[in-house]
Structures are given as structure tokens and as C-alpha cells.
Design a protein that fits this description.
heterodimer, A: alpha+beta, Arc Repressor Mutant, subunit A, 3-stranded antiparallel beta sheet, two-stranded parallel sheet, 5 strands, about 50% helix, globular, B: alpha+beta, 14-stranded mixed beta sheet, 6-stranded mixed barrel, 26 helices, disordered N terminus
């Protein structure tokens, strides 16, 4: 198994927003979802997830409230706001433009 | 996962809010714990799991610190946006509410507009008179210096005494004297009488002012025998007469026949003492009479000295002078006063403070009224508020909503009030300007606007808070279902509302008592027998220039003028006097009965004196009681004669006939009393006539005189003829201050008139407010009790008994309020006595009249709602919601 790729700077926010687009989740669940959905290809330093969550909340893209997890534990649940949803669309578009551009250069035959 | 509603989330957010610290550490610890559990479930040992989890997570302390910082920023931003959005909601909702009940809104806003408008205006008066700094350098270090006569009254200062004081003082760094010296300007157009001031050269330095052009007097121009033929112009006069000629300093002007070089023009806005056109050097003369006191003195405290020290030193100097010059300074002393008293006498200060207190009461009344209206309305809004509470609005949120409504009311009312104040300002300027010179400069400045803002905010909170707490306190207390059923929402708040109305009626009572006392006292003041008849008399000031007239020529001038004036058709009597009644100022001299100077200066008595032509008594209607008036034989060189008034006779000859008696004056002259006339109030309406002696102008000529001319018709109709006759005798003499004598009397009464006017306005406003409050309260009570009244009528109550119940409740409240007001009035109106003339502060007739007015008003205010209650249809009433 190859070493998982380190995340590009700035992409974590987009991934968090995308994860929450499926419904409210707590931080730990977000970390697991990103791992699973990327097929364990992406490894995030789990701690760095939290500053990102607080930053997104401050921007008004996420809302947080305390609730209970599936296992009955008191956790802080994050959910996407309307503004967050719009932001996700913007980030997605930006990402695909970025990937296209980088791809056009890298995939050009030498 | 429980779905939480938005409202309970809000509530939770408000009541249970962990600190960001706790929030972050709980969240991070939870994450690590779950990670460890998963790793253990995946087959690791707990120790291994802890190590790996720590590795994958990173440093919790570092991450935690970053999160806390971000979290705090987040909270600050969100509470701000939430506050703003909720506030916007509140305002929109409040506007909708107010639009929904226009009658309530209009009554409330008008009430507030009256209250805030009146208070802003009065604050404007107070700010102009009491708070505005004087336009001089460090005005708080300026003092007035008076001599004090043996009776303890402040007096002007004589020239030698002023010079001695200036020479000896150590506590005053600069000291200056001034005295009015009117002048006529001749040439460059028509002759014009000017308000001139003779001032010592230090005056400008004492006040800390500089000219805009040229310079002020030099020390050697202020010496007897020095080059005193210089003049400094006021900015106003320079513009008016010379069109602001920039080359004015090259010119000289002819004042009373003396050519004076113009050496300076003062800056605009410098006007001391008020209305001055020109300043000329005083050149105080140490050899003039020490007992002739005519100078006003203003001084600046030396740095590092207090007013008390200066006062003490001035007294010591006066005592030393009294020892050195016992004949003139015998029992006299001296005092210092704050310079501000030149503008604001202590009495005026009392008046203004009384006004402020009254206006405070009025605003309080407006508040109480609106609060009671709001309370009454809150009673009918129980339903709406219960719904809001059920939908998740917290108690704080409901209070805030209600407060927003009241602040909105206050803002609208306040804006209207400020508009009222703006409209009232020019009126006050013109009415009050005569009484209180500073008021002529009243304008709406930042202080007044700031006051209006503060007053609005405070009133909004004050009248809004009580109802808000009552209502909101009731709403979430578990009574929601009960409240949602109709019918049970009447009783609460009723007692508080009642108390507010009682307070409002009590205040109206107090205001009415004050107003009728002040008003009654003013009427008495106006009816006071002055001792002369001021109506149908023309008064005009006339000044003969010193350069061309000596005393003999002056006697000749008036000797020739008087018969000419008397011959004008429509003139019944004509005379002249050195000071017309109420024209400002006084001339006084000490006397002692007998023909010898007293052994002991304390035997002197004080009296005012007037130099008059014999027609003066007839012109003013002052009756001759005994003896004779002056006649043609009383001229210079013959025995000096004197006419005294009754007050002087009582003072000097209490047990004997003064006619034929001798009088010795403090200037050393001995005279014979030939007549006694009635007392006349010359100086003020509200103090008893002072002892007065009249000299014959033919024996004691005076250069500055007032003509007093009694006419059959309108006194102003003879003005042209009078001017013609004056010009016929000397073409260069101008008349000034030409006016009916009763205008001078009216001007003296301007201050009490202003007070009375303001009190009358207040009392009317208070009465209206009280009536509106009573009406509002009873109307709402009736509206609330519609069902209850319906039940009673269904059970057999007659319309009459229903109306009686409603009226009875209103009258019970009103009576309580009136009683409270009367008791308060008894306790507090004594503080009004400074404003009252010949009126007891607890005048019983006034109290009875006020009580009657209030009872009648209360009945009238309640009649409409009582009739409405009596006309209710029981069936419709029972069906009402």
C-alpha cells in the first residue's frame, strides 16, 4: 500500500463542506468519512480538522450544536448552512478549474 | 439524533452556554477518545492505541489554543449579527404594532412631544443662562468688586477708592473700572446718541480681549491730564456707522464736540458691558470726591489665589480706607462677587433652577402617562405575548421587544419635541431677551441636542421598563394556557396603573398650585401702586456734551426747553429728571438731619437723590403731600432747597415736621426741606419705596437727563414735536431711548412675566397630560372589562350604576392624587417664596381653586369612557373576545 497523500493546502475546507453536505456530523465522523471516501488515499492530521471547523463556523458556513452521537455520547454536531452550501459550490468549481489546469500541464506528453 | 427547534436552540444558547475553553477541550478529548476506542476495537492494546491516536491527532494543546482563539472570534461576530437582526425584527414589529393602534400611538407621541419639547426648551434656557461659558479669558478667575454701604447693600465705587484699591491689592493681578458715559456723535451723518463706556485702560487686559484693528488705551491715555482724546469702537458700531472702513484708524470722530482719534476696533462678539458702541478712557481722578460712587469694578484674580483671599484683602483695604477717610468711607466696606453675577444674578439663578425642577416634573409626568397607557395596552396584549412566549421567545426577548416599542415612541415623540423647541427658540429670544440679556443669544447648540437625545433615551427606558417587566414577568410563568383562554387577563397590572395615574394627578396638582401662586403674585405685582402714573408719559434720554456745557449752561438749556415742551399741543406737563424710573441704576447720597456734619459717620442715613425740574412731579403724577415744590426763585446762589418723599421723612424726622428742617449731606452741603411728596417705586416694583430726595435742577444742574412728558393721547404722537423743540434750543443734541414710560415699567416686569408665562404653559401642559392619562386609563379599563360589564348588565345592573362604577373608580384615583399633590404642595412651595411677591406660598384660596379645577377636569376626562360603558349592549359584550 502506497503512503497516503498529504492534503494540498486549502483543500481541507472544501472536503469538510462536502462531507457535511450529506448531513450533520461530529468532528470524528468527518475525519472518518474523508478517509473512507478517499479510499484511504487521503490522510489528514486529524487535529488540524478542528481549526478548520472553527474557521468555517466563524464564517457562517457551518452551524454547530451539542447533541448525542449514535453511541449516546455528547458531541458537537456540525451542519452546513445555506451560505455553506453556496460556498461548497464555489470551492468545487474552483477545484475543478485548478485540477484541469494542473492536469493540462502535467499530462502533456514530454 | 434529536432535531432541535430554532427557538429552543436560541434559548439553550442563551441560558446554557459553555465557555469556548470548555467547548474546545471537550470536543478534542471526545475525538481522541473515540479514535482510541476504534483503534482498540481494531486490535491494538490500550497503550498502543493511545500512542497512535496521539500521533495521528497532533498536539491537542496547540490545536486547542488555535480553536479557542477562532471560537472567540466566532462568538463575537455571531452575537453582533444576531443582535442586529433581532433588533431589526423588533423595530419592524414595533412599527406594525404602533400602526395597529393609531389612537394610542397618537396620544402617546403627543404626550411625549409636549414633555420632551418643553424640557428641551427649558434646558436650552438654562444652558444659555447658566452653562454657557462667558466669552472672556478664564472667566472663572474674574471678580466684581463693590463697595458696601452701612446698610450692607452692594454699591458702586468712587474714583479715589478705586485708585487706592488698585494700588494696594496683591491678590488681584489686574483691576479695571468702568462707568456708562453716553456720547453723541456729530458729523458724518445725522447726530446719533451712542452707548459709551468710560473705562480704565486695564479693562481689556482684565477681560483678556484684544482688538481686531489697532490697539486699546495706553496707560498714559488713562491719566487725568493725559492725552485722553482717543476712542475704541465696537465691531458693531464700526460696521453700522462706518461701513467697516478699513482705514478707520486714520480718522477721528466728534463725540459731544470733542474730536477723538480712533485707535482701535474690538473684535466681533466682544460686547462688554452689553450694548456698548464706544469705549473712551476713564482717567480716574484721585482728587475727585471720595464719596461719589459711580464706578463698576472688575478684576482678575492673581494666579494661585482664591476668591476668599481676595475678598478678605478687599475688606481689609476697605477698613484701612475707612480709617483714613472717615467722612466719606466711615461705615463702608467692600466685597468681591463672582463675575458671572454681572450676567446672572443669584435670583435669576433661582428662577432658572426652579424652572428646571418643574420641567423635570413635567417630563416625569409624560413618562408616567405613557407608561400607564403602555401598561393598559399591555393588559390587552396578554394574548399576543403569550403566543410569542409559546413560540419560544424568552422573557428577555419579550422585554426587549416592548422596550423597542417604547424607545421608538420616545424617538418619534422626541423628534417632534425638538421641532417644538426649535420653533419656541425665537419666541423665547424675543420675550426673554428683555428680561435676561443672555437669552437674546439663545440658539440650539450641541448641548441642547445632546440633552434632547439623553432625555428621549431615558424616558423611553423609564416609561417602557415597568410595563415590559410586568407583562414579560407574567408571560412565561406557566400561565400560558390560561392566558390563551380569554377572560382572565384583566386584573394584573391594575394596581400599578392606578398608582401611576395617582402620581400623575398629584404632579398636575403641584404644578397648578405653583403656577397659580406665581401667576397670582404676578397679578399683584402688576397691580402694585407705583406711586406715580406711568401711562401717557413719554420718556427720552438726553445728554448735554461736557465739552460745550457746564452746569450753568445746562440749567439754562433746560430752563429754555421746558416751557417750549409744555407748549406743544397735547402735552399736559413736562419735566426732566437725571434718572427716569426703572431706566437702570440709581444715584444715592448719605444725609443727616440738622445743619452740621455728624460727629460719628454712623449717624448718616442713606437716600437716593434725583435732580428734577419742577414739572417732573406733575408729569409723573407724584402728589405733593406738604409744603411746596420748586419755583422760579430756587436758582443757584439762593438757599439750597430740597423736596423729600415720605419714606425719607419717616427715616429722618419720625416725630417732627420735616418742612423747614435742615439736612446736611455727606458732600458737606446743608439744605432746607421745602416740601414732601408721595413715595414712588423708582427702582423695582417688588421692593418698598426707598427714601428719596429731590434737588432742583436749577440749583444742581446735571448734564445727563431724562425728559418726562405727560400727554393727553398716545405719548409717541408728540415725539416729532419734542425733537423739533430740542433742536431749536441746540441743533446738535440727540434724543435716545425714546419710549413710553410704561414700557420701562413693563421691561422691569419682564423677568417675572417670563416666569409666570412659563409656569402657565407648564401648568396647562400638566393639566392636559393628567386629563389624557386619566382618560386613557379609564378607556382601556372599560375596553378590558367589556365582558365583565356585559355579565353585570345581564345580571341586572343598570347603565347608570355601570357608569357610576366607572366614574367612581376614576374619581377615587383622582381624589387620591389631588390629596397627595396638595400635601406635597404644602411641603414644597415654600421654596418658591423667592419668586413670589406679597403672596403666601400656602395660599388657601389658591389650593381650593386648584382642587376644584382638577376635580372638574377629572370628571370631564372620565365622562366619555363612562358613557361608553353605560351604553354597552350586554349580548355583544358577552360575545366579545
Amino acid at each position: 500500500m502506497a503512503e497516503p497523500t498529504e492534503l494540498l493546502h486549502g483543500t481541507l475546507d472544501a472536503l469538510v463542506l462536502k462531507t457535511l453536505a450529506w448531513g450533520p456530523r461530529h468532528g470524528y465522523a468527518i475525519a472518518r468519512w474523508i478517509e473512507q471516501l478517499s479510499g484511504d488515499e487521503l490522510r489528514i492530521e486529524e487535529g488540524s480538522l478542528y481549526p478548520a471547523l472553527y474557521r468555517l463556523e466563524r464564517r457562517g458556513w457551518l452551524e454547530a450544536e451539542w447533541g448525542l452521537s449514535e453511541s449516546g455520547r455528547r458531541v458537537k454536531l456540525y451542519s452546513l448552512t445555506l451560505e455553506g452550501r453556496e460556498r461548497l459550490a464555489i470551492e468545487t468549481a474552483q477545484w475543478s478549474r485548478f485540477a484541469d489546469a494542473v492536469g493540462r500541464i502535467l499530462l502533456r506528453p514530454v | 439524533m434529536p432535531e432541535l427547534g430554532r427557538f429552543s436552540r436560541e434559548l439553550r444558547g442563551r441560558f446554557w452556554k459553555p465557555s469556548v475553553d470548555d467547548e474546545v477541550s471537550a470536543e478534542l478529548a471526545g475525538h481522541i477518545e473515540m479514535l482510541e476506542q476504534d483503534l482498540v476495537a481494531g486490535g491494538m492494546t490500550p497503550e498502543e492505541a493511545r500512542r497512535v491516536a496521539r500521533e495521528r491527532f497532533g498536539d491537542p494543546a496547540l490545536i486547542g489554543a488555535e480553536c479557542v482563539e477562532l471560537g472567540e472570534l466566532r462568538d463575537r461576530a455571531s452575537s453582533r449579527t444576531r443582535f442586529l437582526s433581532e433588533w431589526r425584527q423588533d423595530v419592524v414589529y414595533a412599527l406594525r404594532q404602533l400602526k395597529g393602534s393609531p389612537r394610542f400611538t397618537i396620544v402617546a407621541i403627543l404626550t411625549l412631544a409636549v414633555g420632551l419639547g418643553a424640557s428641551t426648551t427649558i434646558f436650552g434656557i438654562a444652558s444659555t443662562v447658566l452653562l454657557r461659558p462667558l466669552p472672556f479669558h478664564e472667566p472663572s478667575r474674574l471678580l466684581l468688586v463693590d463697595e458696601v454701604n452701612p446698610d450692607g447693600q452692594g454699591f458702586a465705587i468712587s474714583e479715589p477708592n478705586f485708585l487706592s484699591l488698585a494700588e494696594r491689592t496683591r491678590t488681584l493681578s489686574a483691576i479695571a473700572a468702568f462707568a456708562p458715559r453716553s456720547q453723541s456723535i456729530i458729523g458724518d451723518g445725522a447726530p446719533e446718541r451712542l452707548r459709551g463706556i468710560a473705562a480704565s485702560n486695564a479693562l481689556f487686559a482684565v477681560l483678556g480681549v484684544t482688538p481686531q484693528l489697532g490697539r486699546t488705551f495706553a496707560a498714559d491715555e488713562d491719566q487725568p491730564g493725559g492725552d485722553v482724546r482717543v476712542v475704541v469702537l465696537s465691531d458693531n458700531f464700526w460696521r453700522r456707522r462706518f461701513g467697516a472702513d478699513p482705514r478707520i484708524l486714520d480718522r477721528s470722530i466728534d463725540l459731544d464736540g470733542t474730536r477723538r482719534r480712533v485707535i482701535g476696533v474690538m473684535k466681533p462678539g466682544f460686547d462688554f458691558p452689553g450694548g456698548t458702541d464706544v469705549w473712551v478712557p476713564l482717567a480716574a481722578d484721585a482728587t475727585s470726591l471720595r464719596g461719589d460712587r459711580r464706578l463698576e469694578v472688575v478684576a482678575r484674580l492673581a494666579s494661585g489665589t482664591a476668591q476668599e483671599q481676595a475678598g478678605k484683602e478687599v475688606e481689609e483695604i476697605a477698613a484701612a480706607l475707612a480709617a483714613e477717610y472717615p467722612e466719606s468711607n466711615g461705615a463702608w466696606t467692600a466685597q468681591v462677587r463672582p463675575f458671572s453675577e454681572w450676567y446672572v444674578t443669584p435670583r435669576l439663578r433661582t428662577r432658572v433652577l426652579a424652572l428646571l425642577a418643574t420641567v423635570g416634573l413635567l417630563v416625569l409626568m409624560a413618562c408616567v402617562n405613557v407608561a400607564s397607557l403602555l401598561l393598559a395596552r399591555a393588559g390587552t396584549r396578554g394574548h399576543e405575548i403569550a403566543v410569542r412566549a409559546a413560540l419560544g421567545a424568552g422573557r428577555g426577548r419579550i422585554i426587549r421587544q416592548l422596550l423597542t416599542e417604547s424607545l421608538l415612541l420616545a424617538a418619534i415623540g422626541g423628534a417632534l419635541g425638538v421641532a417644538l423647541a426649535l420653533a419656541a427658540t425665537p419666541v423665547i429670544r424675543s420675550v426673554g431677551g428683555t428680561a435676561v440679556p443672555l437669552l437674546a443669544t439663545m440658539s440650539v447648540d450641541w448641548r441642547i441636542v445632546a440633552f434632547a437625545f439623553a432625555a428621549c433615551g431615558t424616558t423611553g427606558i423609564v416609561f417602557g421598563l415597568a410595563p415590559a417587566i410586568v407583562v414579560a414577568g407574567r408571560a412565561p410563568a406557566g400561565s400560558t394556557p390560561e392566558l390563551l383562554r380569554s377572560g382572565s387577563r384583566v386584573a394584573s397590572g391594575g394596581r400599578l396603573r392606578g398608582a401611576l395615574i395617582v402620581a400623575s394627578v398629584a404632579m398636575a396638582t403641584l404644578m397648578l398650585v405653583c403656577a397659580s401662586l406665581v401667576g397670582g403674585s404676578f397679578v399683584k405685582l402688576m397691580r402694585t401702586d407705583l406711586g406715580f402714573q406711568p401711562d401717557h408719559v413719554l420718556a427720552a434720554s438726553i445728554v448735554l456734551p461736557e465739552s460745550r456745557y457746564d452746569f450753568e449752561r445746562s440749567a439754562a438749556f433746560f430752563g429754555e426747553l421746558m416751557p417750549r415742551l409744555a407748549a406743544i399741543p397735547g402735552v399736559q406737563a413736562s419735566g426732566a429728571v437725571n434718572l427716569a424710573p426703572f431706566s437702570g441704576g440709581n444715584t444715592g447720597m448719605d444725609f443727616v438731619p440738622g445743619s452740621n456734619l455728624p460727629v460719628n459717620p454712623s449717624q448718616y442715613r442713606g437716600a437716593s437723590w434725583r435732580a428734577v425740574t419742577t414739572g417732573y412731579f406733575a408729569a409723573l403724577g407724584i402728589p405733593l403731600e406738604r409744603g411746596r415744590l420748586f419755583d422760579r426763585g430756587d436758582v443757584g446762589g439762593t438757599q439750597s432747597v430740597i423736596v423729600i418723599n415720605e419714606a425719607m421723612a419717616r427715616l429722618g424726622w419720625p416725630d417732627s415736621d420735616p418742612i423747614g428742617a435742615q439736612v446736611t449731606l455727606s458732600n458737606g452741603r446743608t439744605m432746607t426741606i421745602v416740601g414732601m411728596v408721595g413715595d414712588a417705586r423708582n427702582l423695582s416694583i417688588d421692593s418698598p419705596p426707598s427714601p428719596e430726595m429731590y434737588f432742583a435742577h436749577s440749583q444742581f444742574p446735571w448734564l445727563a437727563m431724562w425728559l418726562t412728558i405727560r400727554t393727553a393721547g398716545d405719548p409717541m404722537s408728540v415725539v416729532a414735536a419734542v425733537r423739533r423743540e430740542v433742536r431749536a434750543v441746540d441743533p446738535d443734541i440727540a434724543l435716545a431711548r425714546v419710549q413710553p414710560l410704561d414700557r420701562l415699567v413693563r421691561d422691569v416686569a419682564a423677568e417675572p412675566r417670563l416666569t409666570m408665562l412659563v409656569f402657565a404653559i407648564f401648568a396647562t401642559a400638566a393639566l392636559v397630560l393628567a386629563a389624557a392619562g386619566l382618560y386613557g386609563l379609564i378607556s382601556y379599563t372599560v375596553a378590558q372589562r367589556t365582558r365583565e360589564i356585559g355579565v353585570r348588565m345581564a345580571l341586572g345592573a343598570t347603565p347608570g350604576s355601570v357608569a357610576r362604577t366607572v366614574l367612581g373608580r376614576a374619581l377615587a384615583l383622582a381624589t387620591l392624587g389631588i390629596a397627595l399633590g396638595v400635601v406635597t404642595a404644602y411641603g414644597t412651595t415654600t421654596s418658591l417664596s423667592a419668586l413670589l411677591y406679597d403672596t403666601e406660598p400656602t395660599d388657601h384660596l389658591t389650593l381650593v381653586a386648584v382642587v376644584v379645577i382638577l376635580v372638574v377636569t377629572s370628571v370631564l376626562a372620565t365622562l366619555a369612557p363612562a358613557r361608553r360603558a353605560a351604553r354597552l349592549d350586554p349580548v355583544a359584550a358577552l360575545r366579545s373576545e
